């Protein structure tokens, strides 16, 4: 089974990444789903989404959980019954989860030029005009998007805006780390972010 990477962030926080190479039949072996998740799986029209969904159940197993330990609140945010915090992400052929004693968020994104066209919707694009290389701009904007997406999952407040409420501090690619501030409804919070790039994908997690 292709567990791609396990990252021990701290004694209480671990990231698990899966590269989806199996078919849905293989991924379904020895995995039991709740009725709710079985219905979700059957409602997915894309086999890639189905494979991603089932690979996440294997990641749960790597972390010592089953589908029955997982539940979702009314906003669709995942939780674990034992009180630990979890965040889940899926992009094409990769899935990941992060499990921690503290609130966390994770995001995986495929690196695509499309990010250059939509960047103005989630970040002040003028900050990146200094990057003359289009590939570098694409990579950096993908990290910024992943950072904001991971914090959106962590913060879990309806109405939170990527553009208006989340500010990611500038960073160098070699740093592999940055910080971000969420300023929403008079409350200001700062979070640490770690990012990595592999096989044309970007993963960012925040805590």
Please give a structural write-up.
The protein is α+β, with helices and mostly antiparallel strands and 207 residues long. The protein has six helices and eleven strands. Strands 7-11-10-9-8 form a five-stranded antiparallel beta sheet. A hairpin with an 8-residue loop joins β8 and β9. The protein starts with a strand and ends with a strand. The mean pLDDT is 94.
Structural class: alpha+beta
Give me the number of helical elements: 6
Strand arrangement within the widest β-sheet reads 7-11-10-9-8
Low-pLDDT runs of 5+ residues are none
List keywords for this structure.
five-stranded antiparallel beta sheet, 207 residues, alpha+beta, 11 strands, four-stranded antiparallel beta sheet
In short:
The chain is of the alpha+beta class. The chain contains six helices and eleven strands. The chain has a five-stranded antiparallel sheet with strand order 7-11-10-9-8. It has a four-stranded antiparallel sheet with strand order 1-2-6-5, sandwiched between helices.
């Amino acid at each position: 089974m292709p567990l791609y990477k396990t990252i021990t962030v701290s004694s209480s926080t671990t990231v698990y990444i899966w590269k989806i190479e199996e078919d849905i039949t293989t991924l379904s072996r020895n995995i039991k789903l709740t009725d709710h998740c079985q219905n979700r799986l059957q409602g997915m029209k894309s086999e890639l989404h189905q494979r991603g969904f089932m690979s996440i159940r294997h990641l749960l197993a790597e972390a010592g959980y089953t589908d029955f330990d997982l539940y979702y609140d009314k906003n669709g945010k995942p939780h674990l019954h034992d009180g630990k915090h979890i965040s889940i992400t899926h992009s094409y052929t990769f899935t990941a989860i992060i499990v921690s004693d503290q609130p966390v968020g994770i995001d995986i994104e495929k690196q695509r030029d499309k990010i250059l066209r939509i960047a103005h919707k989630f970040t002040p694009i003028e900050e990146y005009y200094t990057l003359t290389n289009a590939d570098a701009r694409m990579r950096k904007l993908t990290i910024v998007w992943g950072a904001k997406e991971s914090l959106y999952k962590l913060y879990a407040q309806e109405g939170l805006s990527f553009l208006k409420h989340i500010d990611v501090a500038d960073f160098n690619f070699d740093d592999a780390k940055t910080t971000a501030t969420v300023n929403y409804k008079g409350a200001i919070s700062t979070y640490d972010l770690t990012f990595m790039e592999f096989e044309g994908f970007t993963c960012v997690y925040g805590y």
